[in-house]
Amino acid sequence: MKKLFSLMLACIMLLSLCSFAMADGYSGELKIWVAEAVVDFTQQQVEAFKALHPEYADMTVVIQPVGEGDAATNMITDVEAGADLFAFAQDQLSRLVAAGAVEEVEPSNAEVVKAENDPGSVGAVMMGDTMYAYPMTSDNGYFLYYDKSVVTDPSTLEQILADCEAAGKSFYMEINSGWYQTAFFFGAGCELTFDSNDEGQLIGMNASYASEEGVKALKAMIDLHKSPAFVNGSSISNATNIGAIVDGTWDATAAKEVFGDNYATAKLPTVAGFQMGGFGGFKMLGVKPQTDDDKLAACDALAAYLTSEEVQLARYNAVGWGPSNLNAQKNEAVQADEALSALAEQLAFCAPQGQYPNDYWSLATALGDDVIGGKLDDADDAALLEVLKGFEATCEGYLSK
Amino acid sequence: MTDLEYLKLSKPAKMGYKTRKFFAALPKKLVGVCKKLGQGIIHAGAGFIRGCKDTVQTFRTGDWKTKLSFLVMGFGSFARGQWGRGLLFFLFQTVFNIFMFMPNAQFSGCYYLGKLSTLGTVETYKEGRRTVYGDNSFFILLYGVLTLFFIVAFIYTWYVNVKQNRLSEMILKSGHKLKSTKEDVSALMDSQFHKTLLALPTLGVTIFTILPILFMILVAFTNFDATHQPPSKLFTWVGWDNFRQLLSTDTSSYGNTFSQVLLWTLIWAFFATFLNYFLGMLVAIMINKKGIKLKKMWRTILVMTIAIPQFVSLLYVSKMFAADGLINSYLMKWGWISSPLPFWTNPTWARVTVIVINVWIGIPYLMLIATGILMNIPADLYESARIDGANAFQMYKKITLPYMLFVTGPYLLTSFTGNINNFNVIFLLSQGKPLSLELSGNAGYTDLLITWLYKMTVNDTNYKLAAVMGILVFVVTAVINLIVYNMIPSVKNEEDFQ
């Protein structure tokens, strides 16, 4: 009996020794989801990370291409099979938190993130007072790409449309997307933001769509749709016969190809007398909730590294993604980038994109489709106000009770 | 009404009379079905009671081997020399016991069964920064249902085991010998061959079809959605709430949208089926006509649309009709229109466009089917019609169409059902768009129930409503199928064309 007892004791000691030795470092498998464009880049950075941190040198890192739009859906569908680190666009954060598919940022890392990144991106990764992801880029915004030989003056939408019509070219803007649509509403002075609590639930709404400004914005959208040059869309590589497009930095290369020597960028124009606004958006890196402390530590360390100043700068140099890190933003190359500077100019008129309910996006598409389908062509101001009132009421219905 | 009176009626009146008769007969039919159902239940109940009585009787009159078999399955068979049967019974009982009472509670049937009524109560919590997952409602529901299946299977096997003992005793009493294991095995290859053949399919259908269907039906009664997502969050039973949300017409519910989508689904299925059918037949008749040259070439050209995968052709066609697509660009270039035609943006335009494009895909199939059947219609029918002075349309109406309908009736029915669930065409062409503020739940004007269901599961992870929708799609197709099946001539007048 004594023998057995001592044997057991020895075993327990051995086990605890093992776990103690393991606590520093992690040698299991770790899965990362990033957009296809940065898979190779991420691979190189992971190698650099391993070289810097020998305790993680034995870790097997698998990098899979999953788009920032799909990552959240895939995570929510099956958390257990999901990636340990995943890049996503900020509009997905509230869904992820609500489904319990993203882990809080490690407190000491959170302090660093707050100090080193621009305030918009820090606001975007917070739910209530809790930080849930590492900001990675601060370039998810849109501005105007145009053809110099077609558009004479990019400062008013009316002029752009007239130029495009005269040249028989098209003006592209995806007004049935909740993201691009805000250029009109926020520009006219409306507000639509949601308050979230720490559990990822949306508990309050500040909205002024159903107002004089809202009607003005909606009318500007309707006028845009009535122009024969207008095409609903935001992908320059799918566009044909293009004169100008409202698009983001991710299409900069494609835009240069399409416009050639006539490539030009500008902030968004004014329309009906007001400057178009919009969202300043961000890409971020999330960590999956882990059942293993060591693995979680590895995830935190790697996520912090992949969103650090050096790597953000390296990412800009490799694929042209604009950094959210304040020091990286001051870099000369970043400052000299045409697309990024147009974006920076536009961002002055934009609100940092906060948290929105998932249903908001389809509701905004519905509103845009009604405009494009010509349902509101003949509506008077009172009728438009009714439409916006309905929009607000539906938004309010999305709040958690 | 007598036959004579009926024949005197005008055409519309005849139709009206038939329709009235059909609906008048409906309640009677329904009562008939209910009666049959009731009888079935009574029959099954009686069988169950008989089984129970027999079992008790067996226990009372049986010898000790039989009595012990009540506890240890297969003991009787074993003791009477049928070791093969005995072994199987015993194995089944052992597996069942292990499954139900496994020491590792996480995997035992009892664990899942006990949690089935709540679908889990232990929430996920944090230990420091480490996540400790609580109950997984998804697995509890899935394995709970599996356990119920297993228990039913066990009770049935136990009953068979008892029955075996009774039969064996009777056979032995009458002085005959029991079958040896060798004889049992050879019987499975001979007189009992159907059991050998059907064992695997039955098991497969149960596990891969019946179990998932039952699981999905049960999900319709839970709040399994984006905010109740295992393993981090629990979900639980909510009764009929989801049905209420989908069907009631409050502002926050989907009732209005559901009825709109359902109506469009039926309209779509009607046009997609019958427009294709008649146009396909027309094309086949035209190509079949004497005097048409290059018949094979025309057919080949039409069949080309089948040869190209729909994923490719439909996505391409969808792009072609876009505001900046080929068709609009050229029409504008030629100066026929000043602004793009709203093929995909205006609800009515979009609906007509998908129907028309579907005609383009559907005609070749129908043409192939119709060509074969048209060649089979006896030429003497047409000849005598011509002698009687019938014109082409009369011949079509009196000879071609009835013949076609008779042969292709069942095909029409299945294609109508298929079109109700025609996911590919709609999703590749329009993704259900355009959306509208007048519709809720992310549904668009060209959405069928099935594409709406897809959006709910994939985009919104709203599994609870998707499950309800799945049930309703089944109800709709089942009702239509049953009614139409009983009306088509192929079922009603089997002798007509023999």
Write a structural description:
The complex is a heterodimer of chains A (about 400) and B (about 500). With about 400 residues, chain A is α/β, with parallel strands linked by helices. Chain A has two domains: about 25-140 and about 280-340, Periplasmic binding protein-like II (D-Maltodextrin-Binding Protein, domain 2, 3-Layer(aba) Sandwich); about 140-275 and about 355-395, Periplasmic binding protein-like II (D-Maltodextrin-Binding Protein, domain 2, 3-Layer(aba) Sandwich), CATH 3.40.190. Chain A contains 17 helices and 17 strands. Chain A has helices spanning about 1-25, 40-50, 70-75, 95-100, 105-115, 120-125, 155-165, 180-190, 210-225, 250-260, 295-305, 310-320, 325-330, 330-335, 340-345, 360-370, 380-395; strands at about 30-35, 60-65, 85-90, 125, 130, 135-140, 140-145, 170, 190-195, 200-205, 230, 240-250, 265, 270, 275, 280-285, 350. In chain A, strands 1, 2, 3, 6, 16 and 17 form a six-stranded mixed sheet that branches. Chain A has a five-stranded mixed sheet with strand order 11-8-12-7-13, with helices on both faces. Chain A has a two-stranded antiparallel ribbon with strand order 4-5. The termini of chain A are far apart. Chain B has about 500 residues and is mostly helical. Chain B has a two-stranded antiparallel ribbon. The longest helix of chain B is centred in the first third of the chain and has 51 residues, at about 10-60. The interface between A and B is large, with 54 and 42 residues.
